[in-house]
User: Fold these one by one.
Assistant:
Number 1:
Amino acid sequence: MAKRQCMARVTSVTELAEGIYSMWLLAPEIAEEAVPGQFISLYCKETDHLLPRPISLCEIDGEQGTLRLVFRVVGAGTEEFSKMNPGDEVRILGPLGNGFPLAECDGEKRAILIGGGIGIPPLLELARQLDEKTTVVVGYRNADTFLLEELREAADRVVIATEDGSLGVKGNVIDAILAEGVQGDVVYSCGPLPMLRGVKEWSCKNGVPAWISMEERMACGVGACLACVCKSTEVDSHSNVHNKRICKDGPVFLATEIELG
């Protein structure tokens, strides 16, 4: 799959929750090739921010040529993006990385999609492309949620966990899975490292293959700089050590292929 760099036109920017923004971009050549689980890199206009910001794809509309990003403002780069207006342009590179393997959920298999925090957005396009054969389990800090109604429309079941118990099951996503008796044949997950550890442990214990998307700070986004490596169970052919490049070899991995510490 070819990577393309282009100037994308912003069509909308809206705040979904405190510090969480949704941005739609017009980028037909990238939208035509992108798949759920991939990401794009966005370049800042400010010259002192040289490295691009990688952001996962939340929605992909190949027919309209648009991409949706949902991101949290965590620094100068994402703050710049949050203040953009319709008609503004931003330089992007993509699609990058390997997406979720949808073929693992073919036939009558049922998928469990598990997301936490800013790892939730990539699950929306995935749920839509899996055609409602899904249970989505999402974890929030509190009742200040985002994308929840859209996930309910895309999946046939949504289970919620909140840290403070203000909505759904009190606790984390694994607590919610156990409390609600969630079952499935394959797991797709994206979120913070502690959550992914729990997902891997639960999936291995229950004999369910799990594909997890790693969140990591990236530099080049194309696998050249080795700044975003994770420990793998096998020797990597590129570096000849037990490493995988998250931006190039991932961000999606079979859980048993990598060590989560």
Number 2:
Amino acid sequence: MKDIHIHNTDSLLDHIDKIHTTELGTGRIKKNLNLETDDVVQYCKNIISNPDCRIYKKGKNWYCEAGHVKIVVNSYSYTIITAHRIKP
């Protein structure tokens, strides 16, 4: 994958308490992942903090992949932009 730069993932994990999303982001994530929970931020934090989660940075965003889920987090504001299922 060209343009993907593996960075120290501790940078994202060290600031996991700053991760948040907007009201629109909450709706988008719930829809994309077909979630029942209203706490999508905690759901995403659980995935991101999973030791099996692959975290990499491309441009201004962190990409976090675990299982069949990919989460996109802005690296400056720690806002979860979107999350979606990865096709197997």
